[in-house]
Amino acid sequence: MEKSQNANMGINFFMDNPGATWQDFLNQVPKTPCENIKAKFAGTKFKEKYNKINKPDVFNLDHETGAFERYPPKNSGLEPAFADVENFIGTTNMSLPADKSGIVGLMHSHNNEDPKGNHPVKIFSPVDVRTFFNHLMPQANSYTGSYTNAYSLVTTSGGNYMLQYTKSTWPGSINGETKERWQTWYKEKYEQLLKNDELTQSNVEKLFTQFIKEVINIAGLEVYKVAETSSLKLEYNGADQPVKSTPCP
Fold it and tell me: Counting CB atoms within 10 angstroms of each CB, which of 36, 147, 160, 193 has the fewest?
C-alpha cells in the first residue's frame, strides 16, 4: 500500500472510530500471510502457547490440546488474551467454547497415536478447515476489521502448519454437505497412503495442498509450514512434482 493511501486510511479510520488505539488501526491494514506469521511469533503470549504444545510429550498424548486467542470488543482498551483448551480422552477434533465471540485464532496439536492405536494425519483435518472458515474468519473481521487476521495452527511431530487467508471478502460458511464431501475425499486419499505404506510427511503435505487446490478450491486460502524463525508457503504443483515451497522473506 502506498504511503499516501495508508495516511488517508489512518485519518478516515480515527475519524470513524473515536477513542480507537494505534493497534486498532494496525489491525485494519492488510498484511501478507508472511507478515502475519512473523507478527504472531513476535508475540510473547503466542510463543508461550506455541511452545507449550510443540513438544514430544504433547504429541505422545492420546488426545489433542491447544489454545485459542480471543480479541476484546473494539475500543475497549483491553488486550487480546489466550485460553487453554484440551480435548477429552477419546475425542479427535479440537472444539471451541460455546461463546466464540472474538476468537480469531486457534492452535492445537495432532498426536502420534489415538486411544485406538490409529495414527492421525499430521496436518489439518477437514473439520479444522471448516472451523477456520465458519468461526475464526468472521470473528477476525468483526473484532479486528479484516478476515486476514484469522489463523489456525496445528503442531505435529512431522512439522507445524498455519492456515492463512488473503482476500478481503468472506466466501461464506461451509455447510454440512460440503464438509462431508471434503471428509470423504480426505479419508479415502490418506487411507490409501497408509495402505501403500506411503504415509510420509512429504506425501501428507502434498495431499493436503492438493486438497486445498482441487477440493476446497477457495481463492485466498493458503497453508504455511511454520517455525519460530522461518516459514514456507506450500502449494500443490501437480501429481508428478513435489510440493512447491516458497520461503517467507
Answer: 193
